Amino acid sequence: MDAEADPPTRSRTERHKCFACYKQFKKKEHLVEHMKISYHTPHQPKCGVCQKHCKSYESLRNHLTGPLSRASCSRTFSAQGSVDEKHTTKDAKAIAFNCVMVGGGTDGSLDLCARVCLVDEDEDIIFHTYVQPQSTVTDYRYEITGLTEEHLRNSKSHKEVQDKILEILYNGESARRLMSDSGKARLLVGHDLKHGLDCLRINYPGHLLRDTAKYRPLLKTNLVSHSLKYLTKTYLGYNIQTGEHDPYVDCVSVMRLYKRMRAQDHQVNGIGTPNSDSGFESQKAEELENMTPDELYQLSKSNYKCWCLDSKKAAGPVDF
């Protein structure tokens, strides 16, 4: 009797895998659309084991240690742990800023700046003072601020504090040159900077702000901000704001977070650097679909400015 013929083999549908995050798609055009909106570049947080790109460090932690973590990466990460970074020795240019708010208005919910602290990259205090609120204080929020009426009795006026802060930040630079990245003006580092600056009625150029509440790699997976307390515990390993809020301690925390992010070593080599023109718009759909995943990755650009670009010489990478 003739041998039974082998059953016909079922051909598998070809899958198209993203070069950066490893998502797979049935159709090449779907991969192309994914690349257009994912902004994959070397600036994204990346697994040190499998090299997968993640949207944020929280996403990376879930990949390494979460309930649905990748087993091989989780084992390697557990065995090796994180890699300590080396901070750059670039000339100090950033200033950390924090202010303490008391309450105004009939219900005490109006934030009024009552204390300000500025710290340099060496964690030395540059400016620290009490501020005379511009409205009547109805709630000193003593349990959090530690402030009383006595602290503000002989405090500096709002205008004096404004002028001093701007003098420090301008660093001798003229106002008309503030829009230049090559000027002497200082970078301002903080957490939820806009709120603090608005309370002091200070307007400072956005390209000189480094906000740990807005920096994309430090956001939650849904792109909502973490608290400074959470970021400090998670990325620096110690607790803050357990009682009264000390503006100096908060300044040190945001400066350390900034320097840690700035110290990342991203090999850009012309690949999708922030503010560069994306190559997707200049290519026809047919041309994009004929490209390899790696070639599509080369066209991608970042949708935020990575803080590593603040440093001429970045140091070793960090795994989270």
From TrEMBL:
Give the Gene3D superfamilies listed for this entry. Answer: Classic Zinc Finger (3.30.160.60), Ribonuclease H-like superfamily/Ribonuclease H (3.30.420.10)
Q: Give one GO molecular function term.
A: nucleic acid binding
Under CDD domains, the record lists: REX4_like
Q: Name where it mostly resides.
A: nucleus
Region listing for Disordered, in residue ranges? 268-287
Q: Where do the C2H2-type domain residues begin and end?
A: 16-45
Q: Give the UniProt record's GO annotations in the biological process aspect.
A: rRNA processing
InterPro entries xrefs: REX4_DEDDh_dom, REXO1/3/4-like, Ribonucl_H, RNaseH-like_sf, RNaseH_sf, Znf_C2H2_type
Q: What is this protein called?
A: RNA exonuclease 4
Q: Which organism is it from?
A: Salix udensis
